[in-house]
Design goal:
Largest interface: A-B, 67 and 65 residues
Number of strands of chain A: 12
Order of helices and strands of chain A: EEEHEEHEHHHEHEHEEHHHEEH
Shape of chain A: globular
Number of domains of chain A: 3
Radius of gyration of chain B: 21 Å
Radius of gyration of chain A: 23 Å
Helix content of chain A: 25-40%
CATH class of the largest domain in chain A: Alpha Beta
Strand content of chain A: 15-25%
Distance between the termini of chain B: 31 Å
Order of helices and strands of chain B: EEEHEEHEHHHHHEHEHEEHHHEEH
Number of strands of chain B: 12
Structural class of chain B: alpha/beta
Distance between the termini of chain A: 62 Å
Strand order of the largest sheet of chain B: 6-7-8-3-9-10-12-11
Oligomer: heterodimer
Strand order of the largest sheet of chain A: 6-7-8-3-9-10-12-11
C-alpha cells in the first residue's frame, strides 16, 4: 500500500471578488492532480513558478483545504480527520521550507525550538527531552552544545539543518521539502542533499521534494511529476524521465538545464512566449500556447494523463508521434579523469591525499 | 593576453568599517582584466567579494563605510579617482549593470518606457520622440512581444522574465562597452533562464560588448563565459580559460565546488562537500585562506599567504600544491 495517495486534487483560489463578495475570478492553482508515494521513496514535483507545486505540498499536509479530491495517508482519509486526528497526523508528516532564516523563531534557542514538538505531541517525558534534543542535533550533524544558541548565530546551511532537525523531532514518515536547498551556496547545498539522503536511508523517510532545480532533482528523486499550470503533464521514474522526457514541456525544461561543461552537447528548446496566467488558463492543453508541436486538437481538447503500462504517464495528444527525445537532456560527459581523481581525493579527506602527497614530497620536499 | 584590455583592475582592496571601527576585508588585492568583447565569469559563494568588486567598478559603494584602494582602469579613466560627475556620465552609458532582482531595480511608479527614455536622453540627448523610438527598438531586440504597447506599461504588469529583459534593454540603451551582470538568471525559472542566456549571447555577438558575469552557478559559467575567475574570501584563487577550469582546475576550492554540483550524467551516491566555514574576514588567516577547509593542506600553507602563480599559459592558481595533477598521479 502506498504511504500517500492523492486523487483528483483541486484547489482554486479566489482572485477577485465583486462588491458583494461574489467570486469573479479564480486562480486554478491545482487542477485534478493525482499521484502516489511509497514509504522511503522520494517524489519530486517540478515546474516553473506558479505551476502549483508548492500548493500541492501544502494541500497534502492540509495546511490549506482542497476544493475537491481525496488524500489518503496509510489508507486513512485525511480530509475526514477531525482536529485531534489531524494533529496526530501532523506528527507523521512534516515540512521544511526554502528559507531557513524565516522559518525559525529568532527568540527561541535551538534547544527550545526542538523541544517544542516533543512537548506538543508529548513524545518524550520532560526529564528525557534534553537528551533527545542532543540526539537529534547529532543526527543532523550539529554539535549538541549548540542547543543553547539562537538561530541568528548560525549560517544558512546550519539553519537548514536545524529546520530538518525540528522536522525529525516528531519521527515523521513523510517530509515535504519545499525548495530546501535553493537559498544555499553550492558547497552547503551538497551537504544538505547528502544529509537528506543519509536520513532517508537511515530512517526510511519518504520525501516530496519541490524544486525547480532539475539537476538536484535528478540527484535525489526516485519519481518525478512535472507540473504545468496546476496539472501534472508527465510522471515517471526519475531515470526514465531524464533519459527520455516525453511531454513537450518536460523536453523544454530538461533541454535547458545548465550543465557544468563548456560546449556540452545539447539541443536546447527555447520556449517562445510567456507563461499563460493561471487566472485564465488556455483551453485545451494548457501548454499549447508555448508548444512547438501544437496542432488544432491541442487548442480545444484537454489531454489526459495516459499511463504507458510501465510507470510512465504523459498528458499529450501527440506523445506517440513526437520525435525521439533521447538527445534532449544535455550531457556533461562526466569529469575529466584528472578531475574525477581530484574530486575523489578532495572528498576522501586528508588521509586520502597525504598518501600520495608523501610520495611527491619525497622527491620535492615542499 | 590582450595588449590593451577594456578594463583592468589592479590590486583592488576594499575594507568596510563598522560603527565600532572594526574592519572587514571584503576584497583583498584583486587583479583582473577583461578584453574587448570577452565574457569573464566571476564565481564564488556568498560573501566572497564578487558583488562588492562589481559595485566598486560601478562606483556604487558607500563612501562613508568603504575604504577602497588600487586602480580600476577603464576607457582612459581610473574609476576610483574620477569625479562623481564623470562616473555618472559613464554609468548607464559605456558602463552598464544588470542586477539579480529586476523588480527592485525598476522604479514602480514610472512606465518602463519612461525609464528607458530617461536613460537615453540623459546620455545621448536628442528628442523625446527619437528616444522613444529607440526604446521600442531596444524592447524588440530583447524579444518583448508587441513593444509598441508594452512600452507604456508599469513594471508590476510584467512577468519576472519580462522584467529582466526590460533591465537588459535599459542596460543596452547606450551601447555599453562593458556590461556587468550580477546573477542575472538566478531568480528565474530554467526556461526563462535559457531565454536570457540565449539573449546575452546574441547581444554579445551583435554589439561586441565585454561582459562580467557574476554568478554562483557553474553551469551558467560553462555556457556563456570565455574565462573564469574564482573568488574565495576576498581573493581570486584561480583564473583560467573556461575549458581548462572545468577539465583541470588548479585550486582545491574549485575542485570542491565542481564536486559538489549534482551531475546529470551519473548519479553519485554522495556529493563532495567543503567542510568547515569561510574565515572571519575581520581577522583573515595569515596563510592560505582556504587552508582550514582544504584536504590537501600542508604545514607550509598556514605559514605564508600563497601568491597567484601561472601554472600554464593563462591559468593561474593561488595554491602552493598546484599543479594538482601531482597529488593524484
Amino acid at each position: 500500500m502506498a504511504l500517500l495517495k492523492v486523487d483528483g486534487l483541486v484547489k482554486h483560489f479566489v482572485a477577485e471578488r465583486s462588491l458583494f463578495g461574489r467570486a469573479l475570478a479564480h486562480v486554478k492553482a491545482v487542477d485534478a492532480v493525482s499521484f502516489s508515494l511509497d514509504a522511503g521513496k522520494t517524489l519530486a514535483l517540478v515546474g516553473e513558478s506558479g505551476c502549483g507545486k508548492s500548493t500541492v505540498s501544502r494541500l497534502v499536509l492540509r495546511l490549506i483545504e482542497p476544493d475537491a479530491g481525496t488524500i489518503h495517508f496509510e489508507g486513512r482519509d485525511l480530509l475526514s480527520l477531525d482536529a485531534g486526528a489531524l494533529r496526530a497526523f501532523r506528527r507523521e508528516a512534516q515540512i521544511i521550507f526554502q528559507d531557513p532564516y524565516a522559518s525559525l523563531n529568532p527568540r527561541m534557542t535551538v534547544g527550545q525550538i526542538l523541544t517544542e514538538p516533543l512537548a506538543l505531541h508529548n513524545l518524550v517525558p520532560p526529564a528525557r527531552r534534553r537528551e533527545r534534543v542532543e540526539e537529534i542535533l547529532r543526527l543532523v550533524g550539529l554539535e549538541p552544545r549548540l542547543a543553547r544558541r539562537y538561530p541568528h548565530e548560525f549560517s544558512g546551511g546550519q539553519r537548514q539543518r536545524i529546520a530538518i532537525a525540528r522536522a525529525l523531532a516528531v519521527e515523521p514518515k513523510l517530509i515535504i521539502c519545499d525548495e530546501p536547498v535553493s537559498a544555499l551556496d553550492v558547497s552547503i547545498r551538497s551537504q544538505i542533499l547528502n544529509l537528506l539522503r543519509e536520513l532517508q536511508d537511515r530512517l526510511g523517510l519518504a520525501y516530496i521534494f519541490v524544486s525547480h532545480d532539475l539537476a538536484v532533482v535528478k540527484h535525489i528523486a526516485d519519481h518525478v511529476a512535472v507540473m504545468n499550470l496546476g496539472q501534472i503533464v508527465e510522471t515517471a521514474a526519475a531515470d526514465a524521465l531524464f533519459a527520455a522526457p516525453r511531454h513537450p514541456y518536460s523536453r523544454a525544461l530538461m533541454s535547458a538545464i545548465p550543465v557544468p561543461k563548456p560546449r556540452a552537447k545539447r539541443s536546447r528548446i527555447v520556449l517562445q512566449g510567456e507563461i499563460p496566467s493561471a487566472l485564465n488558463p488556455p483551453p485545451g492543453c494548457r501548454f499549447h500556447t508555448r508548444c512547438p508541436y501544437v496542432v488544432d486538437r491541442c487548442r480545444s481538447e484537454m489531454p489526459q494523463l495516459m499511463p504507458d503500462g510501465i510507470g510512465h504517464a504523459t498528458a499529450c495528444h501527440r506523445t506517440s508521434e513526437l520525435p525521439s527525445s533521447e538527445a534532449i537532456v544535455p550531457t556533461d560527459g562526466g569529469f575529466s579523469p584528472v578531475l574525477e581523481k581530484l574530486v575523489a581525493a578532495f572528498s576522501g579527506g586528508p588521509e586520502a591525499v597525504r598518501g600520495s602527497g608523501v610520495s611527491s614530497s619525497g622527491t620535492n620536499p615542499a | 593576453m590582450n595588449p590593451s584590455p577594456l578594463i583592468e583592475i589592479s590590486d583592488l582592496r576594499i575594507r568596510f568599517h563598522d560603527d565600532d571601527g572594526r574592519l572587514t576585508y571584503a576584497v583583498d588585492g584583486v587583479d583582473l582584466s577583461v578584453a574587448h568583447g570577452a565574457t569573464l565569469g566571476l564565481v564564488g559563494e556568498s560573501g566572497c567579494g564578487k558583488s562588492v568588486t562589481s559595485l566598486a567598478i560601478m562606483g556604487l559603494l558607500p563612501k562613508q563605510s568603504a575604504d577602497i584602494s588600487g586602480a580600476i582602469r577603464f576607457d582612459g579613466f581610473d574609476l576610483l579617482k574620477t569625479s562623481d560627475q564623470t562616473l555618472r556620465d559613464l554609468r548607464g552609458n559605456r558602463l552598464a549593470m544588470i542586477f539579480q532582482e529586476p523588480m527592485t531595480s525598476l522604479n514602480p511608479s514610472f512606465t518602463i518606457g519612461d525609464q528607458i527614455v530617461e536613460t537615453i536622453l540623459r546620455h545621448r540627448g536628442g528628442s523625446r520622440r527619437s528616444a522613444r523610438e529607440r526604446a521600442i527598438d531596444l524592447l524588440r531586440r530583447v524579444h518583448i512581444p508587441s513593444p509598441e504597447r508594452r512600452i507604456d506599461e508599469y513594471p508590476h504588469k510584467l512577468s519576472g522574465g519580462m522584467r529582466q529583459r526590460v533591465m537588459i534593454a535599459m542596460a543596452l540603451a547606450c551601447d555599453p562597452r562593458l556590461l556587468i551582470a550580477d546573477e542575472p538568471t538566478t531568480a528565474l525559472d530554467v526556461t526563462l533562464q535559457a531565454q536570457i542566456l540565449e539573449l546575452m549571447r546574441e547581444l554579445k555577438a551583435a554589439s561586441g560588448a565585454a561582459i562580467i558575469l557574476i554568478t554562483h552557478d557553474l553551469g551558467v559559467v560553462a555556457e556563456v563565459c570565455d574565462e573564469v575567475a574564482v573568488m574565495y574570501a576576498g581573493e581570486i584563487v584561480e583564473r583560467a580559460p573556461v575549458d581548462e577550469l572545468f577539465s583541470a582546475p588548479q585550486h582545491p576550492y574549485t575542485v570542491g565546488l565542481l564536486g559538489s554540483i549534482p551531475r546529470l550524467d551519473h548519479r553519485a551516491e554522495q556529493l563532495a562537500t567543503i567542510e568547515g566555514m569561510v574565515p572571519n574576514m575581520m581577522q583573515p588567516p595569515a596563510g592560505c585562506r582556504f587552508a582550514a577547509r582544504c584536504p590537501f593542506v600542508l604545514d607550509a600553507c598556514t605559514k605564508a599567504p600563497p601568491r597567484l602563480v601561472e601554472i600554464s599559459p593563462g591559468h593561474l592558481s593561488r595554491c602552493i600544491r598546484a599543479p594538482l595533477e601531482r597529488l593524484v598521479s
